[in-house]
């Protein structure tokens, strides 16, 4: 792969951002809507009794941090970064199919192995925003954390696209910091335990590696 000219990455990122922007916004929003339909259906109709996830020593070391809610909800913006940097309609479709397969795998696990986190050690409903969160993203369907899985899947794809366009290291480090903040927040606000996050990271990494290996052309080249 040839090295892009200095600062050419700016024009490349700008082109990628604006390419099919209305379609990307509508498509990502629709994807989330369909996912939450499946998520809540699975949550309300488990195939077996719900298993409560165990706590680890690391869970005890991570205190409750209500401001972690900001990083947590930022996932719903973050997941749009990778598809937002794709140029071709075919690439968007392929990426969406892989992201859908990741979510479907998670929901399949939730159906046959329903899990939940233990009761939090604090009254999270006493903090602003948490009552809404509990209504939107329940503490069931815990392991693997699809919050972490989709964040890691996105992060690996964003890193790949940043390398392709020759983006500076500061943007790549920002991507790393963002995904780490999201993963940390899932435990810090007591939506998940450490084992959920680890399992989610493994699931997201596996699907990202498989999707890149089987779709190496996605993200390369110029728009048609």
Summarize this structure briefly.
With 224 residues, this protein is mainly α. Helices cover 65% and strands 2% of the residues.
Overview of this protein structure:
The protein has about 220 residues and is mainly alpha-helical. The protein has one domain. The protein has 11 helices and 2 strands, in the order H-H-E-H-H-H-H-H-E-H-H-H-H. Helix 2 packs parallel to helix 7 (about 90-110) and helix 9 packs antiparallel against helix 10 (about 170-190). The two termini are about 20 Å apart. The model has no long low-confidence stretch (mean pLDDT about 90).
Pairing-aware structural class of the strands and helices? mainly alpha
How far the N terminus sits from the C terminus, by CA atoms, comes to 19 Å
Using the CA coordinates, give the radius of gyration: 18 Å
Level of helix content?
55-70%
Number of strands: 2
Low-confidence stretches: none
The largest pleated sheet is described as: 2 strands, parallel
With strands numbered from the N-terminus, the spatial order across the biggest sheet is: 1-2
Count of helical regions: 11
State mean pLDDT (0 to 100 scale). Answer: 89
Transmembrane segments: 21-40, 60-80, 92-113, 138-158, 170-187, 193-212
Keywords: Membrane, Transmembrane, Transmembrane helix
Domain Phosphatidic acid phosphatase type 2/haloperoxidase: 115-217
Pfam families: PAP2
């Amino acid at each position: 792969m040839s090295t892009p000219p200095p600062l050419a990455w700016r024009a490349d990122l700008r082109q990628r951002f604006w390419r099919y922007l209305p379609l990307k916004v509508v498509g990502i929003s629709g994807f989330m809507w369909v996912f939450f339909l499946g998520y809540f259906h699975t949550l309300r109709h488990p195939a077996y009794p719900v298993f409560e996830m165990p706590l680890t020593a690391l869970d005890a070391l991570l205190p409750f941090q209500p401001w972690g809610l900001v990083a947590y909800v930022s996932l719903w913006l973050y997941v749009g970064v990778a598809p937002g940097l794709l140029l071709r309609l075919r690439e968007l479709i392929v990426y969406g199919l892989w992201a859908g397969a990741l979510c479907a795998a998670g929901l399949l696990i939730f159906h046959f192995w329903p899990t939940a986190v233990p009761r939090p050690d604090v009254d999270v409903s006493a903090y602003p925003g948490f009552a809404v969160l509990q209504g939107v993203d329940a503490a069931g369907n815990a392991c693997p954390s699809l919050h972490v899985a989709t964040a890691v899947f996105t992060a690996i794809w964003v890193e790949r696209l940043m390398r392709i366009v020759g983006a500076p290291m500061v943007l790549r480090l920002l991507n790393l910091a963002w995904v780490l903040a999201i993963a940390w927040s899932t435990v810090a606000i007591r939506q998940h335990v450490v084992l959920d996050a680890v399992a989610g990271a493994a699931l997201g990494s596996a699907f990202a590696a498989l999707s890149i290996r089987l779709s190496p052309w996605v993200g390369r080249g110029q728009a048609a």
